[in-house]
Design a protein that fits this description.
mainly beta, Immunoglobulin-like, Jelly Rolls, 5-stranded antiparallel sheet, 4-stranded antiparallel sheet, 1 helix, about 0% helix
Length: about 325
């Protein structure tokens, strides 16, 4: 009969690691075992090690059975070497180790598993080297998120500079370096910047102007103006055409309150040279608007056939 079980060392080598395969997910456990007659244990025994989330009762979160050899009553085992630890085993703070020898009652009290001194600092990573490959990143209280598709959502974005479509639009000093700002914006401040980047191909053919719009609404944007504002709109398209004419123009539609569609906002329809080929066309326009909800989009017409390759719609909202 086992009388006494003395813990001499419990070293946590790893709580949770998926990033470095060479780091062993194991716990090194050392102990001393005596018999009922106070003699040291020398014959091999089977010991069951279990991990719980409570000091008493409950079903083990993990368990494994070891055939243990002794030297002067001392032994050591590597927990997790026979039954791997579940990934979430140490996702919470309170974990307790239970020990059962040769089918006897489990020793009580269970031993709480704690971290070694420098492992406490690991709760907050000071620096990370190598590649990080999470499915998504989310900050506390939803302040910002980066989903699995690379879409960034944030109430504020602080950046050294801003590039759109491979071209710089804001430098590290905060100066605008994109298309020139129209003269009407003198004395106004940039309130909002909207960039719609269209990367899918879109086939269309129409001798009359109609909306250029795909399933992802890549060349359509909405603005909700809280005060009288001026919209400076820039459009850059790459298009492959086999026709004799390809034209685009910018359009603004009042939604709430409703109003007349505006297409004469100072932009000039861009025409590609006649014949087949791939061309870059651009439009620029500005319009003063009262408070309300507006849809800004692109219209086009073609004599022949055309495929839109890429498009960038940039909208700058200025207010006083």
């Amino acid at each position: 009969m086992i009388r006494q079980f003395l813990l001499t060392g419990l070293t946590l080598l790893l709580i949770h690691c998926l990033c470095e395969a060479q780091v062993p997910p194991l716990i090194n456990y050392q102990g001393h075992l005596q018999t009922a007659s106070d003699s040291v244990q020398t014959d091999p025994v089977h010991i069951t090690f279990s991990i719980y989330n409570t000091q008493t009762g409950a079903t083990p979160l993990w368990a494994e059975l070891h055939a243990v050899d002794f030297q002067d009553g001392l032994f050591h085992v590597l927990l997790g070497s026979l039954v791997p630890f579940p990934d979430t085993l140490f996702s919470e703070a309170n974990r307790f180790l239970g020990i059962r020898v040769q089918g006897e009652e489990e020793f009580l009290p269970r031993q709480q598993i704690v971290s070694v001194a420098y492992a406490i600092r690991a709760a907050t990573a000071a620096s990370i080297e190598g590649t990080i490959t999470p499915d998504a990143i989310r900050l506390t209280n939803g302040k910002a998120s980066l989903d699995s598709l690379g879409v960034l959502t944030a109430s504020q974005v602080h950046t050294d500079s801003l590039n759109v479509g491979g071209k710089g639009v804001i430098d590290h000093d905060g100066n605008w370096t994109g298309q020139p700002i129209v003269a009407q914006t003198i004395g106004m401040v940039l309130d909002t910047l909207i960039v719609q980047n269209f990367q899918d191909t879109l086939d269309f053919a129409s001798i009359n102007f109609r909306d250029i719009d795909g399933s992802n609404n890549g060349l359509t944007a909405f603005v909700n103006l809280k005060r009288p504002s001026l919209l400076d709109i820039q459009l850059h398209l790459t298009v492959t055409t086999s026709g004799t004419l390809f034209q685009t123009r910018l359009a603004v539609e009042p939604i709430d309150p409703g109003g007349s569609l505006q297409t004469n906002i100072g932009n000039i329809a861009a025409s590609s040279p006649p014949g087949s080929g791939t061309f870059v066309v651009s439009n620029a326009g500005s319009v003063s608007l009262e408070p309300g909800l507006y849809r800004i989009f692109v219209q086009g017409r073609i004599e022949g056939a055309s495929t839109l390759q890429t498009g960038i719609l940039t909208i700058r909202v200025f207010s006083r």
